[in-house]
Structures are given as C-alpha cells and as structure tokens.
Amino acid sequence: QEQLVESGGGLVQAGGSLRLSCAASGSIFSINAMGWYRQATGKQRDLVATITSGGSTNYADSVKGRFTISRDNAKNTVYLQMNSLKPEDTAAYYCNARIDYGVGLRSSWGQGTQVTVSS
Prior knowledge:
- Helices cover about 0% and strands about 60% of the residues.
- The protein is an all-beta fold.
- The strands form two sheets. Strands 2, 4, 5, 6, 9, 10 and 11 form a seven-stranded mixed beta sheet that branches. A four-stranded antiparallel beta sheet has the order 1-3-8-7, with no helix packed on it.
- A hairpin with a 6-residue loop joins β4 and β5.
C-alpha cells in the first residue's frame, strides 16, 4: 500500500528531545525530496525541514541548531531529531515526500503525529 507512516510523537518537557520517523511504503521507484512540516492548532502548516535525495538540508529559522533532519534511502525513511524542545514547538508534525510509484513524481503526506511540549 502506498503511504507514509509517521511515528515518534508524544509529550515531553521543555528542553527535552524527541525523534520522529516517517517510512514510505508501496512499489516505490524513487523518492526525491523529503521533509517535515508542522501545524499548530488554529495556524497554517509550516515547513520545518527538508532534505534532498543527495542529502542537502534546509531548516526553518525557528529550529536551526535544535532540529536535525536525516534520511535512510535504503529504508525509504526520513527522520527528525528534535532537541532543546520549546512549548512553541507544540504542533502536529507531518511528513511529506515526492515519490515516484511508477507514474511520475507526486507529493505524498503522512497522517501526522502530535508533539506536545510542556513548560
């Protein structure tokens, strides 16, 4: 089945860490860019970090120095290591990937995983 499945969200105290994972499944020909976005309640969905197939990364200013995105191409998986978490990082985190299932690249989204940071 063609899908992105996220895991690793939860409740953590400010200053703590979490690691999110997102695995793509199905008959995958190739995966281009992968990334993480987040959406706080009542707000728009914003970019957190992206990573190309070659490993080039891009981060939102608000997470630079605290979050690290990485990927394992052999496992079709992208990760987000989140350190020094702040209450303002609380949001639903969504994985996105541009995947070719044999009919050309298309953008796919995961179902989201909640991250809650308590003060």
